[in-house]
């Protein structure tokens, strides 16, 4: 296992170094450069977590024997991608399409399966590695969102749509209107596992039994409204405040004032699908 982890650490180092160089290379393309900078930061975080995990399990005799083998041709192919991009950066011949092809080839390769196996094996002995899986899920979702928002890059969607997620975030939708609840589920199902509640009381019962990385709640609902649900939830779990996004058609001044005064995220119905996805993605990235 040590040899595979050491190699993964070296891949993460190559990744953040390459993304850093590429971000500078594409500095005139602000949006693409921003994506590359974020990917670079993510890879540095992954590198550091994996390095600490390797140190944390060193000498653990109860570790299960590793059940996979990393073929030499897989290592060579992955490393070849990095060498190719580095060479094109040096010669000034790297195109946007070249870089996007590199990103898809690296981020949606066999590395996902290897990382998944390593994380699932180590997490029983070193729980601090668990955020790596969650972080990598958000990492790849950033790439997907960029591709989805650029029609000229959508040819890559076919290549990545069958890649399994390393991590599934739990998302709670609290909405009494079935049509709106179904719509939110459809919008958010690529972000994680979406569960629903028809009112605040039902939602409160759910948060007492499970952690939700994002909670999208209506305000005006029967039995218990969204504001009362929020107040009771933060009494139980104060840090859950940052996980809330209110999605409401209520234009009541008192409600909007309450949301603003408490620095709570909210969107008004109707809102563009992109705004909903972006708002939830920001919460999941916290």
Question: Can you walk through the features of this model?
Answer:
Strand 3 (214-217), helix 10 and strand 4 form a beta-alpha-beta unit. Helix 9 (200-209) packs parallel to helix 10. This protein has two domains: 2-160, Up-down Bundle (Ferritin), CATH 1.20.1260; 169-284, Rossmann fold. With 286 residues, it is of the alpha/beta class. It has helices spanning 2-25, 30-56, 72-91, 96-107, 111-122, 130-148, 157-160, 178-188, 200-209, 226-236, 253-261, 273-284; strands at 169-174, 192-197, 214-217, 244-248, 265-268. A five-stranded parallel beta sheet has the order 2-1-3-4-5.
List keywords for this structure.
286 residues; alpha/beta; Ferritin; Rossmann fold; 2 domains; five-stranded parallel β-sheet
Total number of domains: 2
Order of helices and strands: HHHHHHHEHEHEHEHEH
Structural shape: globular
**Radius of gyration, Cα only, in angstroms?**
21 Å
Question: What value does the average pLDDT take?
Answer: 87
CATH topology of the largest domain: Ferritin
> What is the annotated CATH architecture of the largest domain?
Up-down Bundle
In percent terms, what proportion of residues is strand? 5-15%
Distance between the termini: 31 Å
Biggest sheet character: 5 strands, parallel
- State the helicity in percent bands: 55-70%
Total helical elements: 12
Q: Topology, pairings included?
A:
Layout: H1 2-25, H2 30-56, H3 72-91, H4 96-107, H5 111-122, H6 130-148, H7 157-160, E1 169-174, H8 178-188, E2 192-197, H9 200-209, E3 214-217, H10 226-236, E4 244-248, H11 253-261, E5 265-268, H12 273-284
Parallel strand pairs: 1-2, 1-3, 3-4, 4-5
Helix pairs in contact: 1-2, 1-3, 2-6, 3-4, 9-10
């Amino acid at each position: 296992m040590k040899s595979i982890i050491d190699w993964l650490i070296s891949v993460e180092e190559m990744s953040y170094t390459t993304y850093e160089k590429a971000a500078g290379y594409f500095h005139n393309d602000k949006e693409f450069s921003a994506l590359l900078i974020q990917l670079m930061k993510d890879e540095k975080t992954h590198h550091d977590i994996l390095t600490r995990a390797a140190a944390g399990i060193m000498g653990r005799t109860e570790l299960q024997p590793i059940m996979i083998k990393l073929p030499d041709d897989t290592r060579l192919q992955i490393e070849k991608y990095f060498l190719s991009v580095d060479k094109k950066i040096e010669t000034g011949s790297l195109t946007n399409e070249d870089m996007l092809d590199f990103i898809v080839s690296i981020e949606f390769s066999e590395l996902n399966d290897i990382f998944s196996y390593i994380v699932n094996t180590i997490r029983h002995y070193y729980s601090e590695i668990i955020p790596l899986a969650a972080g990598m899920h958000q990492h790849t979702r950033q790439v997907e969102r960029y591709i989805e928002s650029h029609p000229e890059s959508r040819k890559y969607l076919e290549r990545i749509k069958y890649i399994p997620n390393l991590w599934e975030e739990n998302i709670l939708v609290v909405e009494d209107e079935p049509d709106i609840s179904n719509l939110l589920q459809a919008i958010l199902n690529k972000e994680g596992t979406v569960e629903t509640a028809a009112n605040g009381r039902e939602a409160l019962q759910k948060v007492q039994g499970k952690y939700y990385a994002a909670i999208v709640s209506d305000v005006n609902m029967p039995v218990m409204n969204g504001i009362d649900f929020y107040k009771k939830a933060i009494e139980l779990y104060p840090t859950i405040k940052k996980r809330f996004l209110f999605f409401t058609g209520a234009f009541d001044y008192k409600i909007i004032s309450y949301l603003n005064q408490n620095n709570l995220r909210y969107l008004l119905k109707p809102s563009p699908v992109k705004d909903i996805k972006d708002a939830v993605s920001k919460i999941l990235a916290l």
